[in-house]
Write a sequence for this structure.
């Protein structure tokens, strides 16, 4: 035993040794090889190479750096180094350190300045602490300090800052100046003391750099002022541009301080006089800015004067000061300026300033400006009024409205009166209506319409007969907004008046008013009008109903459509109903039209109704499966017109439409068109998009070849067949139902079902569980052993369930059992318990594999078998769960809840609403 | 929860208080041209004249004097289109050195925006910058600092808060602002930005991971094109029309459309001076180099308002969801008598969209460096959450992530020498 152990040990060691010796030799690619590869490698490939290199350590990396040459083609070496940095920056710190160490080795070993600079830049991109340390070594190197300092400024962390500070006094000349600028760029105020310390011993050039840096660092010390003064009185003062830019940066500091000292004030006053003399606008502005920090009483007069400075930039500074000051005095100055400037000057700018320091005091000065000759100023004055006092502005603007006929004034007043308080505006405008001229009336009516001022409906209605065409137009638009349901009878009277020229607009107004009424009886006035109407007026009202399109309107038109056609008096009503359907924009009516055609095989207007059906199918709003269902039904109902439907089906590329058409592929009446349609559905279009593939369609396509003459098309079909032979199945599983299956849902109504029937709606041959439904639908009788097959369609986040052997109206998951229906992939369903996903016996048993669900919006097939205590679930042909119920019941359930229902011998089948839309169809059962 | 409504006027006041006091710097002092008088023609230059930059040639608000590009082919095309009086440059710094230029359009890929914007501000230029404003949050902070320090007028090239039909609405954002301000939806609001509310996330702007290096075309200075971005081997898919697919330069469809979609959201919610505090993400793991798609990204503000960036195209979502009602594209609502109720509220203040006016009067443009940086921050927060694939907490005052060092490293990202941000 012992011996064997030892032998094993030796064996293991030798194997390890072999691996150790062999692997490095075998896999350690030469750097030269990598260099060759890297030039043509994709990012992922280069990262793989970089990974290998990093695993071999820093020495190897340094070796790589030796390939960077001062002369000659070293592009790949440089690229390799850069990719190494890119790779490392996606990796943990250990890898970054390895790379840094390699570079540092190379940096120290190499003597060439350009190569060193390159390596410093790459260390900068790396930016880890090791890199910072290494770069800092070169801060004082007169050849490399530019690179090193910029690198540290760009990395910009605490160590960088420290390193720069450390070298500040040690270095000199360009390097020192570089450090100073970098410290200013980093913006850490700790640098201030260091820089101040340095100042006295610095060269004049460096002094300038220090002062600018201190200004950028927003230095605020007395010492700084002294330094500045020294420099100003020096033999060689700062160049002017720099001086001003320093003054400006200083403003920030001054603002933070309590004020300007008398000594500083004297300097500034002297400088201002100088600037006036030289007419140096820039300097005047700069100094005025500084004056702003003196107490207002000392400078208000100065700024009041400067408002009138012909240099717009100076007056702008003055105006800004006065706006910012925001006191009674400053406002009085602005008001005076406004009055004075009205006869010429910077009125616009003053108005702008006034807006920013709003006060009712300005109103009397602004009102005259509404008549100003300059349009821009008039517009500005209107906006200013609103900003100052929106309430007071109302009567001023309405007064102005009465006076003006200028188009842009009118538009500006209109926009303004929509910003003022609506209630007050409407009241005041309403009481002025009679005094307005036509062009003013247009504005007023539009405002009242936008405010839905019902009180003035009658007035607006009168204006629909105004002589002026523009007023008429606005008034006709306004009645739709200002009318309320109680005004509808008045409008109906107008509508039926044969002399009225505005029938279309009035009809639209009625629609508008009724459409927004929150009331199921909204169409009542129309119905009673129809009762009293002459037949030639029916069309007027049915047009309105078509546009309102609520349930009562639809019921009404369908009731006329379904009137017995053999009664002569009905003829006109039926014709009107069909005409109305022809302009009804709701494709869901296709469902009703199909029912009509089914129930009236000998109706005289069948062909007209068929045309409305085709139109509905062309409108947006029907899901593809809904269109397919309609077409399928229509072929059966009116085979003589089936061509229309095959055409439509040919344009819907889905397995659903394929299967619908496939039913007719051997039907002698339709075989030709059906097979051609199948080819159209299955083959990709010109752009090689759409089309369907799948093993199951192969026999259909092979059969279809017989009906195609075009050889090119035949070739394409052959190619597609070959493609399909290798495809994974894309068609729904076609279960081979025998004739013992009966439909549980007939596709038309809820016959055979009970429970919460309001939550489940039959439409287009499917049973839709509404998103508002939280209750359950039960079969009318109980079932014991059976195979249940059905199709279902999920929407994002969908949740539902199939209750099995449930006692009537009891809780399915516990008193019976529930097979879960769920959109497993929805974000809100991530992280559920395994026994809560699709196909689980809810709370009891998870499926063995996740259900192979199709995308939301596509139909899935499911089969549930229940025989004695045996249960199994198949989704899209794949079994995902099989179990023995007795065995499950004998153990505690994973949800820790009691599931006595597992042992039920029979019970109802239920669809379990859960507040989301799910659709079912072809629900069928075979009792065992 | 009550809500602070900030009018534009208050906002401007507040933003100037944190900036340079009341001050507006006259340009002459900074070495630029003197103040443009109201009647004087403004002058402008375009930096970056690829597909987007060519469009800027026709923009209003001034006479074009210069165009600039690191691709000679682009430059030549732009000069042909712009006419004989327009000079061409390769190095944008030469454009900025011209004293006779008032406005600079920055139409480069986003990795260049911050550097050029800051240099332009230092040179005393006013700035018209393409979206997204900056590629990182740190760069955005620096741009704000520079624009304020040098008293510049800044605008972004998105305009939906001010004018034009707002995607699926058939109205301007102004109409939606009215709904929000009226309070009839209640507060806080949830905003869904996705396919079904009219906003597509353009996931076709994805990067490729298997590109083999190609020879650099002679007309392109690739090194200059990369500028501060890490050096990676050239492939035509990385530059020009398709650069958005790479994290080094932008952030896919989110980078392309994000600020168009989200700037109006900040305006609507009155969040112009703040940012979300929580970001959650569901996205496939991202390649370190190439951008792909996301399923959804949720950003939550302190007061409970939320923005959902929906990349899955969930159907039927409302655009705005409040405790009292929902607003759908086309300005439809589930609130009874919605339009009538809305008619009883005053209209909000219209926002002018006149950059020349702002340049002349030195009045802040309605979409400026401050609110522009904040709306771009949403894009950048979403990008970081996508890259890291995890939830994040953000401090909107300090503008740093809370307790996430790795995320904070994406706020400031390394720049390749010799480029650095010098405010």
């Amino acid at each position: 035993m012992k011996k064997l152990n030892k032998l094993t040990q030796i064996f293991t060691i030798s194997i390890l040794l072999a691996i150790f010796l062999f692997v490095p030799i075998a896999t350690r690619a030469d750097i030269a090889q990598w260099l060759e590869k890297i030039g043509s490698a994709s990012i992922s490939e280069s990262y793989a190479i970089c990974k290998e290199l990093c695993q071999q350590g820093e020495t190897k990396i340094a070796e790589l750096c030796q390939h960077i040459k001062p002369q000659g083609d070293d592009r790949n070496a440089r690229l390799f180094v850069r990719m190494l940095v890119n790779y490392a920056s996606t990796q943990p710190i250990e890898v970054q350190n390895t790379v840094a160490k390699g570079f540092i080795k190379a940096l120290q070993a190499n003597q060439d300045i350009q190569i060193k600079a390159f390596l410093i830049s790459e260390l900068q991109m790396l930016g880890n602490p090791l890199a910072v340390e290494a770069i800092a070594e070169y801060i004082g190197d007169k050849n490399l300090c530019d690179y090193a300092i910029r690198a540290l400024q760009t990395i910009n962390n605490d160590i960088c800052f420290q390193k720069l500070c450390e070298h500040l006094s040690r270095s000199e000349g360009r390097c020192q100046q570089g450090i100073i600028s970098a410290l200013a760029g980093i913006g850490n105020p700790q640098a201030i003391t260091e820089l101040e310390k340095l100042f006295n011993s610095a060269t004049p050039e460096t002094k300038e750099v220090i002062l600018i840096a201190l200004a950028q660092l927003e230095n605020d010390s007395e010492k700084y002022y002294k330094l500045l003064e020294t420099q100003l009185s020096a033999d060689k003062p700062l160049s002017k541009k720099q001086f001003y830019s320093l003054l400006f940066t200083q403003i920030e500091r001054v603002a933070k301080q309590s004020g300007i000292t008398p000594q500083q004030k004297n300097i500034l006053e002297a400088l201002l006089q100088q600037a006036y003399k030289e007419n140096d606008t820039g300097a005047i502005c700069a100094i005025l800015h500084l004056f702003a920090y003196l107490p207002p009483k000392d400078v208000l007069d100065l700024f009041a004067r400067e408002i009138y400075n012909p240099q717009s930039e100076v007056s702008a500074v003055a105006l800004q000061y006065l706006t910012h000051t925001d006191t009674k005095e400053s406002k009085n100055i602005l008001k005076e300026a406004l009055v004075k400037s009205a006869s010429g000057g910077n009125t616009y700018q003053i108005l702008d300033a006034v807006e920013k320091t709003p006060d009712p005091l300005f109103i009397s000065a602004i009102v005259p400006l509404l008549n100003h000759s300059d349009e821009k100023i008039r517009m500005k004055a209107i906006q200013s009024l609103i900003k100052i006092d929106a309430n007071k502005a109302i009567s001023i603007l309405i007064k102005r409205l009465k006076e003006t006929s200028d188009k842009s004034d009118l538009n500006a007043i209109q926009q303004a009166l929509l910003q003022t308080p609506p209630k007050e505006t409407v009241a005041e405008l309403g009481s002025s209506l009679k005094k307005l001229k036509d062009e003013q009336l247009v504005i007023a009516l539009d405002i009242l319409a936008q405010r839905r001022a019902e009180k003035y409906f009658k007035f607006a209605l009168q204006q629909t007969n105004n002589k002026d065409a523009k007023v008429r137009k606005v008034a006709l638009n306004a009645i739709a907004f200002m009318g309320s349901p109680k005004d509808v009878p008045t409008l109906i009277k107008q509508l039926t008046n044969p002399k009225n020229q505005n029938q279309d607009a009035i009809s639209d107004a009625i629609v508008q008013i009724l459409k927004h009424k929150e009331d199921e009886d909204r169409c009542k006035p129309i119905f009673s009008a129809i009762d009293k109407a002459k037949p030639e007026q029916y069309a007027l009202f049915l047009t309105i109903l078509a546009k309102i399109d609520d349930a009562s309107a639809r019921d009404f038109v369908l009731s006329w459509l379904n009137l017995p056609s053999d009664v002569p008096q009905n003829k006109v009503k039926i014709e009107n109903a069909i005409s109305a359907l022809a302009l009804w924009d709701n494709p869901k009516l296709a469902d009703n039209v199909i029912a009509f055609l089914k129930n009236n095989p000998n109706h005289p207007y069948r062909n007209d109704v068929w045309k409305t059906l085709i139109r509905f199918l062309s409108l947006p709003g029907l899901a593809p499966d809904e269109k397919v269902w309609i077409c399928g039904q229509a072929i059966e109902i009116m085979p003589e017109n089936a061509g229309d439907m095959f055409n439509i089906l040919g344009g819907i590329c889905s397995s659903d439409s394929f299967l619908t058409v496939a039913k007719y592929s051997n039907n002698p009446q339709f075989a030709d068109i059906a097979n051609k349609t199948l080819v159209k559905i299955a083959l990709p279009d010109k752009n090689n998009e759409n089309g369907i593939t799948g093993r199951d369609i192969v026999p259909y396509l092979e059969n279809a070849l017989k009906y195609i003459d075009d050889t090119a098309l035949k070739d394409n079909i052959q190619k597609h067949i070959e493609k399909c032979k290798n495809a994974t199945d894309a068609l729904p599983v076609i279960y081979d139902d025998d004739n013992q299956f009966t439909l549980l849902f007939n596709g038309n109504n809820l016959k055979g079902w009970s429970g919460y029937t309001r939550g489940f709606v039959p439409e287009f041959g499917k049973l839709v569980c509404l998103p508002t439904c939280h209750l359950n639908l039960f079969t009318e009788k109980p079932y014991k052993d059976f195979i249940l097959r059905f199709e279902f369609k999920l929407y994002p986040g969908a949740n539902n369930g199939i209750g099995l052997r449930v006692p009537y109206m009891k809780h399915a998951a516990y008193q019976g059992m529930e097979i879960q229906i769920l959109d497993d992939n929805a974000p809100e369903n991530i992280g559920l318990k395994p026994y809560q996903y699709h196909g689980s016996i809810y709370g009891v048993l998870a499926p063995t594999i996740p259900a192979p669900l199709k995308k939301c919006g596509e139909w899935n097939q499911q089969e549930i078998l229940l025989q004695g205590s045996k249960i199994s679930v198949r989704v899209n042909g794949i079994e995902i769960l099989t179990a023995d119920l007795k065995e499950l019941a004998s153990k505690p359930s994973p949800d820790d809840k009691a599931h006595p229902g597992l042992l039920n011998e029979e019970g109802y089948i239920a669809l379990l609403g859960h507040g989301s839309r799910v659709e079912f169809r072809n629900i069928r059962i075979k009792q065992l | 929860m009550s809500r602070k409504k900030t009018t534009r006027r208050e906002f401007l006041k507040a933003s100037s208080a944190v900036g340079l006091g009341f001050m507006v710097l006259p340009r002459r002092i900074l070495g630029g041209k003197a103040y443009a008088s109201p009647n004087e023609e403004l002058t402008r230059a375009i930096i970056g004249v690829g597909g987007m930059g060519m469009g800027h040639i026709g923009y209003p608000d001034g006479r074009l004097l210069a165009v600039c590009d690191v691709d000679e082919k682009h430059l030549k095309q732009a000069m042909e289109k712009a006419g004989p009086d327009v000079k061409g440059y390769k190095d944008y710094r030469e454009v900025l050195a011209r004293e006779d230029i008032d406005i600079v359009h920055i139409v480069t890929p986003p990795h260049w925006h911050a550097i050029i914007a800051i240099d332009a501000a230092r040179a005393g230029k006013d700035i018209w910058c393409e979206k997204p404003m900056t590629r990182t949050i740190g760069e955005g902070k620096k741009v704000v600092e520079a624009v304020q320090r040098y008293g510049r007028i800044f605008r972004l090239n998105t305009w939906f808060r001010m004018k034009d039909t707002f995607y699926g609405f058939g109205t301007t954002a102004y109409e939606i602002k009215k709904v929000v301000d009226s309070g009839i939806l209640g507060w806080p609001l949830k905003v869904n930005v996705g396919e079904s509310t009219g906003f597509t996330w353009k996931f076709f702007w994805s990067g490729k991971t298997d590109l083999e290096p190609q020879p650099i075309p002679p007309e392109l200075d690739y090194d200059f094109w990369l500028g501060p971005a890490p050096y990676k081997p050239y492939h035509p898919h990385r530059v020009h029309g398709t650069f958005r697919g790479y994290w080094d330069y932008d952030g896919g469809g989110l980078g392309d459309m994000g600020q168009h979609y989200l700037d109006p959201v900040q305006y609507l919610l009155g969040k112009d001076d703040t940012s979300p505090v929580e970001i959650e993400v569901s996205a496939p793991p991202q390649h370190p180099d190439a951008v792909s798609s996301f399923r959804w990204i949720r950003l939550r503000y302190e007061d409970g308002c939320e923005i959902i960036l929906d990349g899955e195209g969930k159907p039927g979502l409302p655009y705005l969801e409040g405790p009292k009602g929902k607003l759908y594209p086309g300005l439809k609502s589930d609130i009874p008598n919605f339009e009538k109720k809305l008619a009883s509220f005053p209209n909000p203040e219209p926002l002018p969209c006149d950059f020349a006016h702002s340049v002349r009067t030195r009045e802040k443009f309605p979409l400026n460096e401050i609110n522009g940086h904040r709306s771009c921050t949403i894009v950048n927060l979403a990008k970081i959450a996508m890259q890291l694939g995890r939830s994040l907490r953000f401090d909107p005052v300090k503008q740093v992530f809370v307790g996430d060092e790795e995320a904070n490293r994406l706020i400031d990202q390394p720049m390749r020498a010799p480029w650095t941000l010098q405010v």
